[in-house]
Amino acid sequence: MDALTADLPDTRPTALHPERESVRLAVRHGHIERLGRWQIPPLVNLDLAHAVAAFDLRTSPLPANGLRIHVEARHSSIQLLVNAGTMVEADELARHHGVISDRRARRVDEWSGPRVVVSGSLHHSTLKIKRPR
Fold it and tell me: What is the torsion angle, in degrees rounded to the nearest 10, for the CA atoms of residue 36, residue 27, residue 94 and residue 23?
């Protein structure tokens, strides 16, 4: 049977929607969100100016080797919705009158799953990591 279909295009779902290595999201004076299930690539480049962004990293699987988010934000607000044990590292994120908030991280007993690394810079912007109660 394989010989009969060898020259036909591959129409399986993975062929229709191949996994991306990265995505660039740029917003000026607007709002962007990825809520619910979405295909999370290993690298997200986020360029914001006077914008609001929300990303749900709870319901979709994170890439096996982790997720890297590179941020360039000016006068913007970013929310990352993560599971209770997801490790989010923001040591490489420069802050110029910026704020990083992850209040429930100190209540985590054990980190689990792939890690999320946030790098880049916040200029008069905020990054809030939201974990379930």
Answer: 60
